[in-house]
TrEMBL record:
This is 15-cis-phytoene desaturase. It comes from the Bacteria. PANTHER family: AMINE OXIDASE, PROTOPORPHYRINOGEN OXIDASE. GO terms for molecular function: oxidoreductase activity. The lineage of its organism: Bacteria, Bacillati, Bacillota, Bacilli, Bacillales. Residues 13-442 form the Amine oxidase domain.
Length: 444
């Protein structure tokens, strides 16, 4: 009979962080992962001959805990990312784009140019209309975050009379680009809350593209250390439920009917996965009411390989008013083995979830044309990568439903970006949830 101190279900950043912390403390840990590759939403793999990833990611310079756990396993963020100090917004119906500097310290000139420039798309009046929106958003998120969760971003923008242009070229790109949702579906609490940690650490602000697939640059170095600490990581293992003995968790049941025992089980899956595992045991348990009530939200990406680069630089780009919420050329940063590579996150995600992949491609090529991009010539390969139930919904009114890592069930702890931590659905949030989960296990 296999027995561990702790079983961790899920090998995303939350699960790997939990496993790393506990194995460093001398606990025997087993990480069980449903998929063939580790990393969860930060993974990369070979999909029928094309290297794909869960979706293109940006490391934000103000993250604190993710860099710390990477450092613990010998990885410096500066060695695995290519920093960007600017983002581009492409204008529908023209070949023009606006560039915004996002890094007051690392790229001060670009930041100032972004604010005082871009006058062909944003008049001084448009820019001025954003001041009240951002100032009041940041004041409210500090003073009364719950009130802010009642508004969607569009309502909040209307309240502060953001001009139509500023809405189109700043608010929509930010909301659709960051969490794939149009502003009318995006909670103002999440929108401002995500920027909040950046304010005291504004000097750290910039974003980085990973220099390699995320399983390689993030997950594998963490996994290597867990194994070095005598931890076990098994892939292709689908956990179906828990082993319960008089309300105490004793281990997990696998899809093949076998059982693995442990003193603690940390369910570090995506929200959809957690609901599946816990449903059979706690659907009507009052302490899990919020978790089951918290809706999931999908994400859909299309990743394309070309005979030559589509964009002159590898830089995060937004395509407001089209399905291309955000996209980036990656052939000089993340995937240098191909001459051209574009990764696109689509909005609104639900529209594309069940769409035939050829149809998605045609849709994206048509919208690409509207943004002045030729996504037909030289296309060599493409794949659609979807995440039907990975995210918790970031729509207004849901944030209070996110559960704590600690549960009232002895031996059961939760982790994952949907659990309560201040960084919402981000890599930093996942890592923080893993740190909290490990602390709970160590204290019990
Ligand atoms: C397209 C896209 C773009 C993103 N962009 C960014 C970005 O730019 N910056 C940023 O900070 N964040 C970004 N994120 C969010 C970030 O990836 C997530 O917040 C974070 O990776 C979540 O980690 P996690 O460990 O909580 O969950 P996951 O990474 O989802 O890990 C959960 C794991 O549990 C496994 N699992 C589920 N059920 C079972 C089961 N029954 N048995 C065994 N294993 C199971 C899953 O297979 C998965 O590996 C993006 C995500 C996506 C999808």
């Amino acid at each position: 009979m296999e027995k561990f101190d702790v079983i961790i279900v899920g090998s995303g950043l939350a699960g790997l962080t939990t496993a790393l912390e506990l194995s460093e403390d001398g606990k025997t840990v087993a990480v069980l992962e449903k998929h063939k590759v580790i990393g969860g939403r930060t993974s990369s793999w070979d999909e029928d001959g094309m290297i794909v990833e869960s979706g293109f990611h940006r490391h934000i310079g103000y993250y604190e805990e993710l860099p710390k756990i990477l450092k613990k396993v010998g990885v410096e963020v500066d060695d695995i990312v290519q920093w960007e100090e600017q983002i581009d917004v492409r204008i529908k119906g023209s070949k023009n784009k606006a560039s915004f500097g996002i890094s007051p310290v690392f790229g001060p000139i670009d930041t100032i140019k972004g604010i005082i420039g871009n006058n062909d798309i944003l008049s001084p009046k448009d820019k001025f209309s954003l001041i009240a929106f951002f100032t009041n958003g940041f004041l409210e998120i500090v003073k009364n975050p719950e009130k802010l969760d009642k508004y969607n971003v569009r309502e909040f923008a209307e309240k502060y009379e953001v001009s139509e242009n500023a809405l189109h070229y700043v608010v929509i790109p930010l909301s659709a680009g960051i969490f794939f949702l149009p502003p009318e579906r995006y909670s103002a609490k999440v929108f401002f809350g995500l920027f909040l940690p950046g304010i005291p650490r504004f000097y750290k602000l910039r974003i980085g593209a990973y220099l390699g697939g995320m399983t390689e640059v993030l997950a594998k170095p963490l996994a290597k250390h867990i194994v070095k600490n005598n931890g076990i990581i098994k892939t292709d293992i689908n956990v179906k439920g828990l082993i319960l003995d008089e309300d105490m968790v004793k281990g997990v049941k696998l899809e093949d009917g076998s059982e693995i025992f442990a003193k603690h089980v940390v369910v570090a899956t995506n929200l959809g996965g957690a609901k599946e595992i816990l449903r059979g045991h706690f659907l009507n348990h009052p302490s899990f009411e919020n978790l089951f009530a918290l809706p999931t939200m999908p994400a859909v990406t299309i990743q394309m390989e070309f005979e030559k680069p589509i964009l002159p630089v590898d830089r995060t780009t937004f395509g407001p008013l089209t399905s291309l919420a955000s996209f980036a050329e990656q052939s000089r940063s993340t995937f240098t083995h191909v001459p051209g590579r574009l990764s696109v996150i689509l909005t609104p995600p639900e529209k594309f979830l069940d769409m035939n992949h050829d149809e998605i491609l045609k849709h994206v090529q048509k919208d690409g044309r509207e943004l002045g991009l030729d996504l037909e010539s030289g296309l060599m390969n493409y794949r659609v990568v979807s995440h039907p139930e990975d995210f918790h919904s970031l729509e207004p009114g849901n944030d209070h439903l996110r559960p704590d890592q600690k549960t009232p069930i002895e031996g059961l702890v939760l982790a994952g970006d949907y659990t309560r931590q201040p960084y919402f659905a981000t890599m930093e949030g996942a890592v923080r949830s893993g740190l909290y989960a490990a602390k709970i296990v160590l204290e019990e």
